[in-house]
Amino acid sequence: MGERKKIKGAAVGVQLTLTARAVRNALSHELAARGLYPGQDAVLLAIAQEEDGISLRDLAERLAVRPPTVTKTMTRLSAQGIVVRRASRSDARQSFVHLTDKGLGLVAEVRAARAAVERQALKGLKAKDARRLRKVLRRVERNFADAAPADAPAETDD
Protein backbone atom coordinates (compact mmCIF):
# COMPACT_ATOMS: atom_id res chain seq x y z
CA MET A 1 0.00 0.00 0.00
CA GLY A 2 1.23 3.49 -0.80
CA GLU A 3 2.05 6.15 1.73
CA ARG A 4 -1.00 8.11 2.86
CA LYS A 5 -0.88 11.85 2.77
CA LYS A 6 -1.81 13.49 6.02
CA ILE A 7 -4.22 16.36 5.82
CA LYS A 8 -2.89 19.09 8.10
CA GLY A 9 -5.51 20.87 10.14
CA ALA A 10 -8.21 18.54 8.82
CA ALA A 11 -11.71 19.33 9.91
CA VAL A 12 -13.21 16.98 12.49
CA GLY A 13 -15.55 15.48 9.87
CA VAL A 14 -12.64 14.71 7.56
CA GLN A 15 -10.66 13.14 10.40
CA LEU A 16 -13.66 11.05 11.47
CA THR A 17 -14.12 9.87 7.89
CA LEU A 18 -10.47 8.88 7.56
CA THR A 19 -10.54 7.12 10.93
CA ALA A 20 -13.79 5.29 10.16
CA ARG A 21 -12.33 4.13 6.84
CA ALA A 22 -9.19 2.83 8.57
CA VAL A 23 -11.28 0.95 11.16
CA ARG A 24 -13.56 -0.50 8.44
CA ASN A 25 -10.54 -1.63 6.41
CA ALA A 26 -8.91 -3.26 9.44
CA LEU A 27 -12.15 -5.04 10.39
CA SER A 28 -12.72 -6.13 6.78
CA HIS A 29 -9.25 -7.67 6.78
CA GLU A 30 -9.87 -9.46 10.10
CA LEU A 31 -13.25 -10.76 8.91
CA ALA A 32 -11.88 -11.90 5.54
CA ALA A 33 -9.24 -13.94 7.37
CA ARG A 34 -12.17 -15.74 9.00
CA GLY A 35 -14.15 -16.21 5.78
CA LEU A 36 -16.61 -13.41 6.45
CA TYR A 37 -17.63 -10.26 4.60
CA PRO A 38 -18.05 -6.77 6.06
CA GLY A 39 -21.42 -6.40 7.77
CA GLN A 40 -21.80 -10.09 8.49
CA ASP A 41 -20.22 -9.58 11.91
CA ALA A 42 -23.04 -7.36 13.16
CA VAL A 43 -25.63 -9.77 11.75
CA LEU A 44 -24.07 -12.79 13.45
CA LEU A 45 -23.84 -11.04 16.80
CA ALA A 46 -27.44 -9.82 16.57
CA ILE A 47 -28.75 -13.30 15.75
CA ALA A 48 -26.61 -14.83 18.51
CA GLN A 49 -28.43 -12.67 21.07
CA GLU A 50 -31.73 -14.34 20.21
CA GLU A 51 -32.14 -17.86 21.56
CA ASP A 52 -35.29 -18.48 19.52
CA GLY A 53 -34.07 -16.80 16.34
CA ILE A 54 -35.07 -13.42 14.97
CA SER A 55 -37.35 -12.30 12.16
CA LEU A 56 -35.79 -10.55 9.18
CA ARG A 57 -37.85 -7.45 9.91
CA ASP A 58 -36.68 -7.30 13.53
CA LEU A 59 -33.09 -7.94 12.45
CA ALA A 60 -33.24 -5.09 9.92
CA GLU A 61 -34.67 -2.80 12.59
CA ARG A 62 -32.02 -3.76 15.13
CA LEU A 63 -29.21 -3.17 12.63
CA ALA A 64 -30.82 0.05 11.31
CA VAL A 65 -30.74 -1.20 7.72
CA ARG A 66 -33.43 -1.77 5.13
CA PRO A 67 -35.07 -5.21 4.84
CA PRO A 68 -33.66 -5.88 1.33
CA THR A 69 -30.16 -5.49 2.77
CA VAL A 70 -30.89 -8.12 5.41
CA THR A 71 -32.44 -10.44 2.82
CA LYS A 72 -29.33 -10.18 0.65
CA THR A 73 -27.06 -10.88 3.61
CA MET A 74 -29.20 -13.82 4.75
CA THR A 75 -29.01 -15.36 1.28
CA ARG A 76 -25.21 -15.21 1.39
CA LEU A 77 -24.98 -16.48 4.99
CA SER A 78 -27.39 -19.31 4.20
CA ALA A 79 -25.31 -20.33 1.17
CA GLN A 80 -22.25 -20.35 3.45
CA GLY A 81 -24.05 -22.65 5.90
CA ILE A 82 -23.93 -20.05 8.66
CA VAL A 83 -27.66 -19.43 9.14
CA VAL A 84 -30.87 -21.30 8.54
CA ARG A 85 -34.39 -19.93 8.16
CA ARG A 86 -37.24 -21.65 9.95
CA ALA A 87 -40.95 -20.91 9.83
CA SER A 88 -42.44 -19.47 12.98
CA ARG A 89 -44.30 -21.99 15.11
CA SER A 90 -47.12 -19.51 15.66
CA ASP A 91 -47.30 -17.89 12.20
CA ALA A 92 -46.22 -19.87 9.14
CA ARG A 93 -46.06 -16.66 7.09
CA GLN A 94 -43.15 -15.43 9.17
CA SER A 95 -39.69 -16.97 9.24
CA PHE A 96 -36.98 -16.68 11.83
CA VAL A 97 -33.25 -16.82 11.26
CA HIS A 98 -31.10 -19.07 13.45
CA LEU A 99 -27.37 -19.68 13.55
CA THR A 100 -26.16 -23.11 12.51
CA ASP A 101 -23.41 -24.85 14.47
CA LYS A 102 -20.97 -23.27 12.02
CA GLY A 103 -22.52 -19.85 12.68
CA LEU A 104 -22.35 -20.34 16.43
CA GLY A 105 -18.67 -21.18 16.07
CA LEU A 106 -18.08 -17.99 14.11
CA VAL A 107 -19.50 -15.78 16.86
CA ALA A 108 -16.30 -16.19 18.90
CA GLU A 109 -14.29 -15.45 15.74
CA VAL A 110 -16.25 -12.25 15.15
CA ARG A 111 -15.66 -11.15 18.72
CA ALA A 112 -11.95 -11.90 18.31
CA ALA A 113 -11.83 -9.88 15.07
CA ARG A 114 -13.52 -6.91 16.70
CA ALA A 115 -11.23 -7.15 19.74
CA ALA A 116 -8.15 -7.16 17.48
CA VAL A 117 -9.33 -4.01 15.72
CA GLU A 118 -10.16 -2.38 19.05
CA ARG A 119 -6.65 -3.13 20.34
CA GLN A 120 -5.15 -1.70 17.17
CA ALA A 121 -7.29 1.44 17.38
CA LEU A 122 -6.41 2.11 21.01
CA LYS A 123 -2.73 1.17 20.76
CA GLY A 124 -0.61 3.70 22.64
CA LEU A 125 -3.57 5.25 24.47
CA LYS A 126 -3.86 5.17 28.23
CA ALA A 127 -7.06 3.57 29.59
CA LYS A 128 -8.28 6.99 30.72
CA ASP A 129 -7.73 8.43 27.23
CA ALA A 130 -9.54 5.47 25.63
CA ARG A 131 -12.55 6.03 27.92
CA ARG A 132 -12.55 9.73 27.09
CA LEU A 133 -12.34 8.98 23.37
CA ARG A 134 -15.38 6.69 23.58
CA LYS A 135 -17.30 9.35 25.48
CA VAL A 136 -16.44 12.07 22.96
CA LEU A 137 -17.32 9.85 19.99
CA ARG A 138 -20.70 8.98 21.55
CA ARG A 139 -21.37 12.70 21.99
CA VAL A 140 -20.49 13.42 18.35
CA GLU A 141 -22.78 10.58 17.25
CA ARG A 142 -25.64 11.93 19.39
CA ASN A 143 -25.14 15.37 17.85
CA PHE A 144 -25.92 13.87 14.46
CA ALA A 145 -28.73 11.66 15.73
CA ASP A 146 -30.38 14.68 17.35
CA ALA A 147 -30.12 16.68 14.10
CA ALA A 148 -31.20 13.93 11.67
CA PRO A 149 -34.72 14.15 10.24
CA ALA A 150 -36.93 11.33 11.51
CA ASP A 151 -37.62 10.04 8.00
CA ALA A 152 -33.99 10.07 6.81
CA PRO A 153 -32.87 6.69 5.45
CA ALA A 154 -30.31 4.88 7.60
CA GLU A 155 -28.46 3.53 4.57
CA THR A 156 -28.77 2.71 0.91
CA ASP A 157 -28.79 -0.57 -1.00
CA ASP A 158 -26.04 0.13 -3.52
Keywords:
158 residues; mainly alpha; Arc Repressor Mutant, subunit A; three-stranded antiparallel sheet; 6 helices; WH-like_DNA-bd_sf; HTH_MarR-typ; DNA-binding transcription factor activity
CATH homologous superfamily (4th level) name: Winged helix-like DNA-binding domain superfamily/Winged helix DNA-binding domain
The percent of residues in helical segments reads: 55-70%
Q: Which word captures the global form? A: globular
DSSP helical segment count: 6
Protein name: MarR family transcriptional regulator
GO biological process, one term: response to stress
InterPro entries: HTH_MarR-typ, MarR/SlyA-like, WH-like_DNA-bd_sf, WH_DNA-bd_sf
Pfam family, one: MarR_2
Describe this structure in words.
There is one protein chain. It is built from 6 helices and 3 strands; from the N terminus they run H-H-E-H-H-E-E-H-H. The mean pLDDT is 88. The longest helix has 22 residues, at 101-122. Helix 1 (12-32) crosses helix 5, helix 2 packs across helix 5 and helix 3 packs across helix 4 (67-79). By secondary structure, it is mainly α. It is globular. It has a single domain, classed as Winged helix-like DNA-binding domain superfamily/Winged helix DNA-binding domain (Arc Repressor Mutant, subunit A), CATH 1.10.10.10. Strands 1-3-2 form a 3-stranded antiparallel sheet.
